[in-house]
Amino acid sequence: MAQIISIGASQHIDLLKARLGQETKPFEKNGLVLNLDESPAGKLTFLNCRFADFRGRGQGDADNQALLKNLIAEVISDIIMSHWEAMLLKNIIRENYYYFAEEDKETIFSQAILNINNNADGPCKSIYWFKRKNEIIHKINEFLRSNNNIVIDGFIRFRLKEYLGELKEAAEKAVDDFLMEREYKEFIQLLKYFVETQEPRLGVVHVLNSSNGDYCLFDDQLRPVKSDQVGGFFVDLIEGEINCEDLLVSALVTIAPREVVLHYCNEHIPAATLSTIRSVFGERLKECTGCDLCTTRVKN
């Protein structure tokens, strides 16, 4: 007679029953019918599983037992991935980053979900999802080779430490990303305040980028901006050329012109720099995609 395999869990019992029924349904035509008995035990509920071979032929009890254990590993791993994983991540965030506001925790959780899938979506996301699932299946199969009882809650806690470690790393990176984003937004607000409250040194500043990565600044008369027009602070501002994106932003903030015109003659302005300039200058910013200045002033 086939041995009973017991599955204990604190949640998702009905889902476990339904999934096990679906996975074993195809074997009924061969006389293998899954018997399930449910029994509560404190906070846990146990499902006692056993294959009944009504035809008494074909595979032996040992083969039926191995088949059932493989199906159980498949179902448990899928439910851990589809239902436990989000809860585990939220618990990690709640326990380790309790000092964040609830809204911030939700933002961190959403980023953590992206992190565990390497920021991938669609089919690429499935690659990382199935990789984690396969690792869990392997662990469950390994455990069931010598055990007929498994408690999912305890198995996750004590046998899936590497998996939990991945979730913790994803949450930790999400917190770092969140803090960096918040610091960036605070920095942008500070720059915006500085631009809005100080007296403009120039009415208009034209920004051109060359193919070698330098930037050229010109005033409304198309004359190169000199270092004394930015307070003499930027020693690298020579004949209107700037060699660093950060220095470009700093120069524009110091000048605080009423209008900034970006010329995309060679399209070498990095996305992060563009985002910063757009955020800081808002309606003061004009973006040119092609004009006489673009073609005549930057030759590189």
Shape: elongated
Class based on secondary structure composition and strand pairing: alpha/beta
In the predicted model, the low-confidence regions spanning at least 5 consecutive residues are 232-240
Strand order of the largest sheet: 7-6-5-8-9
Walk me through what this model shows.
It is a single chain. Mean pLDDT is 87; it is low at 232-240. The protein has a 5-stranded mixed β-sheet with strand order 7-6-5-8-9. Strands 2-3-1-4 form a 4-stranded mixed β-sheet. The chain has helices spanning 13-24, 61-96, 102-116, 122-144, 152-159, 161-197, 245-255, 271-281, 292-297, and strands spanning 5-9, 32-41, 44-53, 149-151, 204-209, 215-218, 241-242, 259-263, 285-288. The longest helix is centred in the middle third of the chain and has 37 residues, at 161-197. It is elongated. It has 2 domains: 60-188, no CATH class; 198-297, no CATH class. Helix 1 runs antiparallel to helix 2 and helix 5 packs across helix 6 (161-197). It is 53% helix and 16% strand. With 300 residues, the chain is α/β, with parallel strands linked by helices.
